[in-house]
Amino acid sequence: MNIFTKNINQQKRVKGFFFLKKIFVFLLFTAFLLTCHRDEDPFLYSENTMIKIFGGEFMMGNEFDSLGPLSLPSHPVTVEDFQISKYEVSVAEFNTFVSETGYKTDAEQEKWAYGYVYINDTTRRWEKQDITWSNPRYNQSDHHPVTCVSWNDAKAYCDWLTRKTSKSYRLPLEKEWEFIARSGGKSIKYPWGDHLPSGQEANFSDVNTPYPWADSITNDAYAFSAPCGSYFPNELGIFDLAGNVWEWCEDMIKTYDGKSIVDYEEARVMRGGSFHNRENTMRTAWRNYDYPNSRYFNLGFRVALSSH
Question: What pLDDT score does 1 carry?
Fold first, then answer.
C-alpha cells in the first residue's frame, strides 16, 4: 500500500468517525426533545401543566355593558397566589383516574346526562340522554376535554389527584377563575381582550352549529368540543378559558351581596361558556350555575392548587 492510498484510507476512517458522531449527537438530541415533550404533554398528568399565578386585587364583576344582574356590581376582590392547570382536564386524564379507581360518574350510575336535541328553531330542547364522559355522542379523542361530569365527579378527580401527588388539588375558586380569565385581573371583556372572537381565540356557537343564536359569520372549525389547547392562550399561557366547555368552580353560587339564588341554594358556579353557547357567555364576568350532580355534554373542569 503506497502512502497516497494509506492517507485516503485514513481520511475515510476519520470521516466515518465524524459521521457516526453526528448520528450519535442527533439521537441524543432527539431523545432530549421527546423527553421534553412527554414532560409537557397536557393530556397525561404532569405537574408541568400547572402554572403559578401571582395574586393581587382586582375588580370582579361586569364593568361594561349589561350582562344581567348576577354579574353586578363590579367590586374589589383580593386573590392569593395559587396554581392553575394550563388546560382543561382531558379525556385521557380522566380515563387514568377511572382506570385506577374504578370510579363511576353520576351519569354512569344514573344512565343520563343532559344533551341537546335540535330539529329546527321551534323543536329544540335539553333532554336526559344515555351519554357519559367516554361517549358524549360526538367525536372526541383522548385530547379533548372531558365532559358529562358533575361537580361531584370533578371533586372526586381532585381527591384522587391529591392522593396520587400528596398535594391538595381542588377546583378553582370563582374569584381565581375570573382573575386568570382577566389575565391577572385586567379590565377586559374576554380572555384575549375586548374584541369579538374571530375564530382563532375560542370555540363557541358559530357557523358550524345550527342554533338560532349561532354566529353566522365566524368559523372556529368545530361544532362540538375541540382538542385542549386548539386556540390561542391568554397572556398567562392558559388555554380555553373562553368557550370549548363550561368549567366547574369550587364555590356555591351567591349574588355578589351574599344572597343565595332561590331554588339553587346548593348550586355551584360554572364559568367560561362552551361550544354550544353564544359569544357573550365567554365574557370574563359571565356567571352560570347548576346543582352539584348536574352534568351536560358541554361541561367539564380544570384543577387548581393553593400555593401555601
Answer: 53
Same domain, 281 and 143: yes
Domain carrying residue 3:
1-40
24 and 150, same domain (yes or no): no
**pTM for this model (two decimals):** 0.85
**pLDDT tens string 281-306:** 999 999 999 999 999 999 999 999 99
63 and 212 housed in the same domain: yes
Please check whether residue 45 lies inside any domain of the structure: no
State the CB neighbour count (10 A cutoff) for residue 2.
7
Quick one: how far is CA 48 from the chain centroid? 15
HSE of 228 in the Cβ direction (CA atoms, 13 Å)?
A: 26
Virtual CA dihedral for 206, 208, 213, 218, nearest 10 degrees?
A: 30
Strands (E), the chain: 50-53, 56-60, 75-79, 82-85, 113-120, 123-129, 169-170, 246-252, 268-271, 288-290, 299-300, 304-306
Rounded CA separation 158/170 (Å)? 5
Whether residue 80 sits in one domain with residue 6 = no
**Cβ atoms of 157 and 89 closer than 8 Å:** yes
- Under 8 Å between Cβ of 113 and 137: no
- Based on the structure, what is the number of domains in the chain? 2
178 plus 208 within the same structural domain: yes
